[in-house]
Amino acid sequence: MIDELRNALRHHPAAVTIVTAPGPVGLTVSSFGSVSMHPPLVGLWIGKSSSAYPALSVTDHFAVHLLHADQTDLADLFARTNADRFGSGTLWESDVDGLPRLLEAPVRLRCRTARRIEAGDHIALIGEPEDIEHQANTQPLLRFQGRYTSVAQYGRGWGAARPIRH
After folding, report:
1. 3-state SS, one letter per residue, for 104-146
2. pLDDT tens-digit profile of 11-29?
3. pLDDT tens by residue, 103-139
4. In a 3-state reduction of DSSP, which class is residue 75?
5. Over 50: is that where the pLDDT of 40 sits?
6. Does the CA dihedral 63-126-25-121 come out positive or negative?
7. Residue 14 forms beta bridges with which residues?
8. Residue 135 to residue 64: CA distance in whole angstroms
9. What is the pTM of this model?
10. 3-state secondary structure of 16
11. 53 or 152: which carries more pLDDT confidence?
């Protein structure tokens, strides 16, 4: 059943994000989305076995960085176990509360933790955006069928998904 579910979910494209918390800690997450508009809430799922889980399970604030289609290397870095995620190859700074801000991410949502919900081997981390940084006309990095993908925009319409290396 687990393999069947995993294979079925590979057919659902998901935006690739990096979630950060004070420490600094961070990890690549593709289970992110809007929860509510009234009040504004976003949510993501964090595995309890993740190296960032201890920090994210207690933090008052976290940031969600939506990645650009060209940021596959950054997504891979934050997905690797025991990687130096905040080393010299990552452009970042801490905000006033020590929350890491990835400088090259086209979208950043700085969130106050509103709620945590335990479900199986994950927690849902629900956040209330307090600050939003967004660049116009960016191509999002997506994950689909086990590969990175992007959506090509042609004029006012959307084109077909195209594979990106990996």
Report:
1. CCCEEEEEEEEEEEEECCEEEEEEEEEEEEECCCCCEEEEECC
2. 778 899 999 999 999 999 9
3. 999 999 999 999 999 999 999 999 999 999 998 888 8
4. helix
5. yes
6. negative
7. 143
8. 14
9. 0.87
10. coil
11. 53
The token duo for 156 is 């006012």
How far is the C-alpha of 59 from the C-alpha of 13, rounded, in Å? 28
- Asked whether the beta carbons of 27 and 37 are under 8 A apart, the reply is no
The residue whose two tokens read 């600094």 is 24
- The domain defined by 2-163 folds into Pnp Oxidase; Chain A (2.30.110)
**What is the reported pLDDT for 83?**
92
Please report where in the chains the tokens 């335990």 appear, as a residue: 118
- Helix, coil or strand: residue 8: helix
- Find out whether 75 and 81 touch, Cβ atoms under 8 Å: no
Cα–Cα distance, 23 to 20 (Å, whole number): 9
Other CB atoms within 10 A of residue 164 CB: 15
Contact 13, 150 (CB under 8 A): no
Average pLDDT over residues 48-61: 94
Domain ranges of the chain: 2-163
Q: In one letter, which amino acid is 26?
A: G
Q: In one letter, which amino acid is 11? A: H
